[in-house]
Amino acid sequence: MENDLLTVQNVSISFTQYVQGLQQHILKVISDLSLSVKEGEVVAILGSSGSGKSLLAHAILGILPENGQCDGTISFKGEVLTQEKKEELRGEHICLIPQSVNFLDPLMKVREQAIGDVKDEEKEKALKHQKEIFEKYGLAEEVGDMYPFELSGGMARKVLLSTALLSDPELVVADEPTPGLDQASVNETINDIKRLAQEGKGVLLITHEIDVALKTADRIAIFYSGYVIEINKAENFNDVNKLLHPYTKSLIEALPRNGFKLTSGVQPLEEVDGCPYFENCPIRSDICQNNKPDLIDHNGIMIRCHNFDKEVN
Amino acid sequence: MNNRTKKFIRNKAIHFIVLMLAVAIFSFILLELSPIDPVNAYLKQAVVSPEQRMILEQYWGVNQPLTTKVWGWLVNLLQGNLGTSLIYRVPVVDVIIERFMASFVLMAISWVISGLIGFGLGVVAGKNKGGWIDKAVKVYCYVLQSAPSFWIGLVILIIFSVELGWFPIGMSVAIGTLNTDATIWQWLARLVLPTLTLSLVGVAPIAMYTRNELVNVLSTDYILFARARGESGWPLIERQALRNILLPALTLQFQNFAELFGGAVLVEQVFSYPGIGQTAVAAGLKSDVTLLLGIVLVSAVFVFVGNTLADVMYYFVDPRIRENESFDKN
To answer: Which of A45, A47, A75, A57 is nearest to A13 (CA)?
Structure first.
């Protein structure tokens, strides 16, 4: 994996919580997550909302809350990221595109926020660059003088995007860039993200919208109950037979265009001994109950299932 | 001046008139219901014949119906006549102006000092949340918030005047000197300790509030995003957080006018500082009804001004409120 921009290996993120006085409880949100993003590639992490996907973005940027614990290794261009390294790279080489206008300071003009904290002598240059970027993403010049509460939804999204791209990063982490947007804005976002990849940047797209992931990404990682259960090429999602994990299959079959086949069941909230999908799995066997499957490589597809090849036959 | 400002001023004016009418009427009725008898207060236990007493009662209109009394009070009030003080034998207005100026200096200096120090301590504590500075500030604030201000005043008096002998124990001027004869330095020396006390007490609420506001702001999404873009440390707080906590802190500080007034009453008493607070206590103890009513009215104005300034401040500092104006115009 020489040309990998970002490599995430066996990353687990957990939180220490206090329940009833001094009793500690460790809440595991992401377990044993591995994936990689190459230059010019869009990798989507697709999972239900509220499942903790955003925390991976925060872990990559080193902005997890104090009680959050991150195990495993995250490397950027082959170099393992320590907290110091993350602080050095973030904002410059790795950038975050946040979810909503809430990520902008309500009392600061958009322009000031976009250029960030720059020295006085560099300010002019930064402002010029900001103007170019705003223009590139179709923002009028006066938008810079606005306060966040004056922006429309589409404008806010463009502002967030251009703010993140001002420093010309190599890796962009887009955290739910599309919720609550109209179809035209969603399509625009998809095109913007694709354009980033064409410019050679790596993009990690975190989303719960299947369509956005399918239209944007080169590869899609399916996130289920804290685990990545399958990483497959986006084009394989057009053909259920090319998907390996039973959850991925049911997910795709549930799409309206694929016949709306609904499967019941919910994702387990507590840590389980065996496969997280055991309860709802149609192809489970005895081994699945108490043994957790590892994420393994099967002809370039990453899969976390004991029985996927038995079903294929 | 645009429509919004006009509307703001109009509403505030109506608010002010209604408030003053209510305060004037209710404080008068409360005093009327109290056991204070103006005739007794005037006579100070001097022995008089019932006939003389009747003449006095008639002169003051003690036996008139309540509505007539209230009406008379309001009419006089509108003419700017607050009556004559029983203990000072001069018009109430003159007493209040003189005493209020002395208090105003005391309160204004304490207000500025407590605001600045409180805000500073709050920011330092909030930034180092959970650290030893934070804990020290918290302990300081809890202690001061729970201790009565007159007690703090006594402790300061014991330390600086009695033990160290740095400052006079009380009075705005030395005994035997006239108020007008005192030099500015004598006067300043007597101002230091009451100001110190009021400032120390005033620091606690603003520091705790600022600390919590900063902790909240630091956990918001926009600070997260700013950090994700490489901002950190003091520049981050200075650039993004301060602006967002300044406004609520200012509001709180202006609303503290009422507490400042209450604190001044006790502190002036402890230091025998001849301000409005000490005068209020004297008026109460010596049943000086006219002076007491005058002070109640003035303090209501004072608190109203504090709250109005807080509102005006919001209007000018927060773009979300300021910019609404342009929507109104369109």
So the answer is: A57
Residues A88, A86: Cα–Cα separation, whole Å: 5
Indicate the number of domains in chain B: 2
Searching chain A, which residue's CA lies closest to the CA of residue B327?
Answer: A150
Mean pLDDT score, A191-201: 88
Domain identity same for B139 and B161? yes
Q: Of A164, A172, A160, A231, which Cα lies nearest the Cα of A199? A: A172
Identify the CATH number of the domain in which residue B217 sits: 1.10.3720.10
Q: Are A171 and A6 in contact (CB under 8 A)?
A: yes
* Bridge partner residues of A27 (DSSP): A15
pLDDT for residue B330: 38
Give the pLDDT confidence of B102-161 residue by residue, as tens digits: 888 888 899 999 999 999 999 999 888 888 999 999 999 999 888 888 888 888 888 887
Residue B84 in domain: no
Q: Tokens 């377990």 belong to which residue?
A: A31
| Residue A114, pLDDT above cutoff 90 | no
Q: pTM for this one?
A: 0.77
d(CA B153, CA B156): 5
Question: What's the CA gap between A87 and B229, in Å, rounded?
Answer: 9
Q: What span, in angstroms and rounded, lies between the C-alpha atoms of B314 and B321? A: 7
Residue B58 corresponds to which amino acid? Q
Residue B315 lies in a domain: yes
Q: Is residue B86 part of a domain?
A: no
Q: Which residues of B touch A (CB under 8 A)?
A: 219-222, 224-232, 235-236, 239-240, 243-244, 247, 318-320, 323
Contact residues of A toward B, CB < 8 A: 58, 61, 63, 65, 87, 90-92, 95-96, 98-100, 102-108, 113, 116-117, 147, 149-150, 163-164, 167
CA B92/CA B288 separation, integer angstroms? 10
> In whole angstroms, what is the distance from residue A217 CA to residue A4 CA?
16
Which of B12, B46, B78 represents a domain boundary (last residue)?
B78
B271 domain-assigned: yes
When the pLDDT of each residue in chain B is averaged and rounded to a whole number, the result is 81
Reported confidence tier of residue B183, pLDDT bands at 50, 70, 90: low
What pLDDT is attached to residue B37?
73
Q: Are residues B31 and B104 in the same domain?
A: no
Q: Are residues B166 and B300 in the same domain?
A: yes
Domain span holding position B49: 3-78
pLDDT given for residue B112 in this prediction: 92
Alpha-carbon gap, residue B244 to A206, rounded angstroms? 30
Which residues of chain B does A167 touch, with a Cβ-Cβ cutoff of 8 Å? Answer: 229
Q: What type of residue is A32?
A: D
Whether the pLDDT of residue A134 is over 80: the answer is yes
Q: Is the pLDDT of residue A185 over 70?
A: yes
Q: Are residues B262 and B154 in the same domain?
A: yes
The average pLDDT across B198-207 equals 89
